[in-house]
Amino acid sequence: MSEEKKKTGFLGRLFKRNRLEDKPQEETATGEDYVQELQSEHPEETESDRKIVDATSEDQDEARNLLVLKTGLTKTRKGFLKSLDGIFAGKKELDEQVLGRLEEVLLRADIGVQTSYELLEQVTDRVKRREIDDPAKVIKHIRDMVRQSLEKVESPLRVGYGTEPFVIMVIGVNGSGKTTTIAKIAARHTAANRKVMLVAGDTFRAAAVEQLQIWGDRIGCEVVKGKPQADPSSVAFEAMDRAIKDDFEIVLVDTAGRLHTRVPLMDELKKVRRTLGKRIPNAPHETLLVIDSSMGQNAILQARTFNEAIPVTGIAMTKLDGTSKGGVIVGISKELQIPIRFVGIGEKMDDLRDFNARHFAEAMLSVD
Ligand SMILES: Nc1nc2c(ncn2[C@@H]2O[C@H](COP(=O)(O)OP(=O)(O)OP(=O)(O)O)[C@@H](O)[C@H]2O)c(=O)[nH]1
Ligand SMILES: [Mg+2]
Q1: pLDDT tens digit string along 81-117?
Q2: Which end of the chain has fewer CB within 10 Å, C or N?
Q3: Ligand 1 atom having least distance to the Cα of 180
Q4: Cβ–Cβ < 8 Å for 114, 315
Q5: Closest residue (by CA) to atom 7 of ligand 1?
Q6: pLDDT, tens digit (0-9, with 9 covering 90-100), for 127-144
Q7: Residues 323, 116, 363, 343, CA torsion sign
Q8: Which atom of ligand 1 is found nearest the CA of 172?
Q9: What's the pTM?
């Protein structure tokens, strides 16, 4: 690692000093306590952890960001609008028949049953009160409601820099896009001159370790890996040790999405999570669940299962570019109320975007 990479930005150095004294002295939950910790949620971050926050490294050009997202969401938008068009075509009135078909379309749009019925109820109500009298207004109403619903989970990942590394544990089923998402996040922070470490926590598959190493080499950041078939927790522990010793600022821990051992995946992940906290009391500062959007309703099921086992603090929805099921983000946000941090709209490094509710609603439901 070159001296250049070690350097933090001006603000990083400034706040690093500030954080020295006021670091919280929390005990780490271990063993039996861990079950309680799981139930009582992840320990709250204190002010001191968040002295400096970096919510994003992506460019702030509003119009460009919206355009990029719109392009990424083309399939979802076209699919949804086409079905809506099919209902309204040639209809002058929003009668019972039209509303009945709207119900079908909403249920098929992967936005979740609850959201679909809420939307339908609101639209029906407004049609009765004559506030909505044409299809364009129905679409606008749906767009507004989707935006409002998504705004509740809009909360970009805040990375605090300080005396201890900021640890992000990344979980999700196999193939969901964990490793790629890790690489994308790492690329952003490395580009901003932060010292980033990748941890190969999926020790069971040699290919997984290799894939992470390739990314590490390409991005120019350190990769910590164990011996083949090593216990993922031992790798996690060593990595934390290294991260503290060598002053890393951001640590991204890759994990397995499927295990070929007798140990259930969730138990293994819980163990890794607990281990991270042994060395760094608040770690992982973020438990990021990566979900493949093309899974549709299954994505909601997956998110629920993971969250029940390990408290998820943020979600990244990937592969939105390849699916018409992007509406699933609405269902997930409604059901889980967990911050959506990122959306993945392609395989390139800058195809991971910070989640923006207004942009998303617009990209999903704009008519032009
Ligand atoms: N089109 C598209 N492809 C993506 C996106 N994110 C990930 N992928 C692709 O999805 C495939 C799987 O991604 P990985 O990052 O390897 O998934 P993983 O969760 O690490 O998988 P395992 O290590 O097997 O558990 C790769 O081919 C990625 O390039 C995305 O936002 N859009
Ligand atoms: Mg992987």
Answers
A1: 888 888 887 777 778 888 888 888 888 888 888 889 9
A2: C
A3: 15
A4: no
A5: 177
A6: 888 888 887 888 899 999
A7: negative
A8: 19
A9: 0.84
